[in-house]
Amino acid sequence: MITDKERIAQLRLINTENIGAITYHKLIKHFGSAEKALENLPPRFAPFAKDKAEAELKKAHKIGCRLISYDDETYPQMLKHIADAPPIIYALGNIELLNHTPSVAIVGSRNATVNGRKMASRIAYELTEENVIVVSGMARGIDSSAHKGALYAKGQQGATIAVLGTGVDIVYPEENAALYKQIIKQGLIISEFPLGTTPQAQNFPRRNRIVAGISSGTLVVEANLQSGSLITARLALEQNRDVFAVPGSPLESRSGGTNKLIKEGAILVDSAEDILPHLSKPLRPLPQKQTPQEQELFDNLLDKDKNNVDIPQEQEGENLLDYLSRDGTYIDDIIRQSGLDSGTLSAKLLDLELEGKIERLPGNKVALLKK
Asked: Measured between alpha carbons, how far is 109 from 229 in angstroms, rounded to an integer?
């Protein structure tokens, strides 16, 4: 059982400037706890104020919000396999759903067609009837339709998980206020962002890595070729999860992304029956989160005297652009030139991709996006 004292230390560490999820995990692994890590931070790091962390925890208790840290038993085990897994998850509702298997993410266009919304709702309903938990992001369009379909199942008592790009106490979009309340009542709402975090464009793509990470597979219902849903699908593939897609007319731009996924090997579906057989199979083995060589690299950056620790600051993704070209650069070359380990580099490249600054190329290469 994690004490409030340790929880406050965790909040202080993850909210300290220049310490992101990857560095947080390395610090915990090295020092054993957030408290010890805070004690050994170099002077250049200004730890997040203790009184602010205490206020955050008090506010969470007041609204019935659970803070689930990476080392909690209730932390979603499948999510632990992504390099930048959230150190802390805020949760409102039934936290037992976090480790319910199987689960399927349903994502797609915010500006969805009527048929697309109907399809998302119907498949979500069918999956929930078969005891599959539907996960989505509570956005307009496909997300909202998927949640509603799941809630309507099992005599209107179905469960679903909504992953927010805001604090769990912020309803966005506002039109989903009733849906938000119903999900808390029947399912679960989670977020990695502190309470009170308002909608910010850069937070929603980062939310999608959690949507894919806690799900056994990801279904894309509608998406154009530039949709963030395609990145969610790629993240699912990188996490060794199945990707499903609903086909559409080549004349409809919102089917361009799903048709592309199918061409690249996604499983074509038009009902839950096409998904269920794949969920009965065991998940493919996941790669080791961090190699011994990567851990050694980090350890070498730490002085043997723990009172004089030299901890690498989180590097800005912008710096990586110096290693890229419009023709493409091999990821192995970026690792060698930048000195970043593969997990850190993967997270930084994801941020740049979500910002529309780079693109993935065949052969494990990335390139500056051609404008």
From this structure: 8
- Count Cβ atoms within 10 A of the Cβ of residue 36 and give its class: 0-12 exposed, 13-18 middle, 19 or more buried: middle
CATH numbers and ranges of domains, the chain: 4-87 (no CATH), 96-279 (3.40.50.450), 315-368 (1.10.10.10)
The token pair at 72 is 């909690």
Tell me: the pLDDT tens digits for 222-234? 998 888 888 888 8
Alpha carbons 86 and 21: distance in angstroms, whole number? 6
d(CA 49, CA 15) in angstroms, rounded, equals 9
Q: 311-349: per-residue pLDDT in tens?
A: 444 444 447 787 888 888 888 778 767 767 666 777 777
Contact 350, 340 (CB under 8 A): no
CA 329 to CA 164: how far, in whole Å?
A: 34
Reduce the DSSP state of residue 219 to 3 states and report it: strand
pTM of the model: 0.81
